[in-house]
Design goal:
Number of strands of chain A: 8
Oligomer: homodimer
Number of domains of chain A: 2
Low-confidence stretches of chain A: 196-203
CATH topology of the largest domain in chain A: 60s Ribosomal Protein L30, Chain: A
Distance between the termini of chain A: 61 Å
CATH class of the largest domain in chain A: Alpha Beta
Largest interface: A-B, 78 and 78 residues
Radius of gyration of chain A: 21 Å
Helix content of chain A: 25-40%
Chain lengths: 203, 203
């Protein structure tokens, strides 16, 4: 069987998947593919795992493309601390491994280092060279550590009744006992409806 | 040409896509398909749009499956207020439409109402009936409103230098000028590494 770079895909097949799902072939999602590959080779087979991602940029899409952990099924959780790292952990025990892009290991690949540490602004980077270095480097850029995840802190909140907000007249999930939905309680949504909002009125 | 239910897909084709990406065929992601379909039929062709989703549950996956707005490419943003709603907005002007699941419109479909308003606990719901009612109802469950999105509040934060945190010795994106990464500054990650963490030491 032909050697595959990223799980059951060649590097080129993975690029096609990225173009379809994510749009542009960003360096971060390519490296993310190798991160997922390394994680999957280091967790026991048939393990029911979930994933924590430490950045919102690119990396979540590598996880969503290559595993069945997605934002919508709640098996991928983003805790954005701005680091390029993924933790795969066993759902019931918290046993896990954390894979991270190790800046020290980028040293032999000048263009990866330029991109990762933003040594050069984007328009001065050589994208072709960057992509070929990423393909060449593969999992050699990555660090891996065992971790214990406190699964109690990540417990899914299935609870929460569904009630109707008296202001927007929409159904919402109650999480803290307040009788007004979070959108009407605080101004946290960045839009205004083009009709006047009145309590109990269907807009 | 055969009539398609959800963008260019039949309902059955969409179910296959869900199984592959999301795992289970959840009612929320099915209805989400009709929401995306209705949105796409109401925005001008060739509009460069982004999406805001008001819940983390299921709905983000409908957007990611059917559009090129994903979490990782930052074109899908989740602002979790627990409502079942999506806003598609024009990236540069903020012109947009908000599609929501209108509880009042679930009245003719008993099992959809039972599911949405949690009238019955999950184990007492009839999943087959629920799915067939969702297929039958299509976009008839949905409300649609024009909105003005304040795009300044959603501006992408491209800025932020990449620096090395002196505690974890990893690269991270500086967003507020602090010289320690958010993960080391506050205990916001739910795991402990199985090695001792010391400043300036490679673990």
């Amino acid at each position: 069987m032909k050697n595959k770079d990223i799980l059951t895909y060649t590097f080129e097949e993975y690029i096609t998947m990225i173009e379809h799902f994510h749009g542009s072939v960003a360096p971060g999602i390519l490296i993310g593919g190798f991160m997922v590959d390394l994680a999957c080779r280091n967790i026991p087979k048939n393990t029911m795992y979930n994933v924590i991602c430490e950045t919102t940029k690119c990396l979540p899409d590598a996880v969503q493309l290559l595993t069945q952990c997605t934002i919508g099924n709640q098996r991928l959780k983003i805790i954005n601390v701005g680091r390029y790292a993924l933790t795969f952990y066993e759902k019931d025990t918290g046993w896990g491994i954390r894979i991270y892009l190790d800046y020290k290991k980028t040293e032999p690949w000048s263009e990866i280092k330029n991109w990762y540490l933003k040594v050069k602004p984007k328009h001065m980077q050589n994208k072709q060279l960057l992509l070929s270095q990423i393909k060449e480097a593969g999992t050699n850029l990555l660090g891996i550590k065992k971790v214990d995840v406190n699964i109690k802190l990540l417990g899914q909140k299935h609870n929460g009744r569904i009630v109707i907000c008296p202001f927007c007249d929409e159904a919402y999930r109650v999480t803290n006992g307040t009788a007004v939905c979070p959108a009407c309680r605080e101004e946290i949504l960045p839009y205004v409806l083009k009709t006047i909002k009145t309590a109990k009125t269907v807009l």
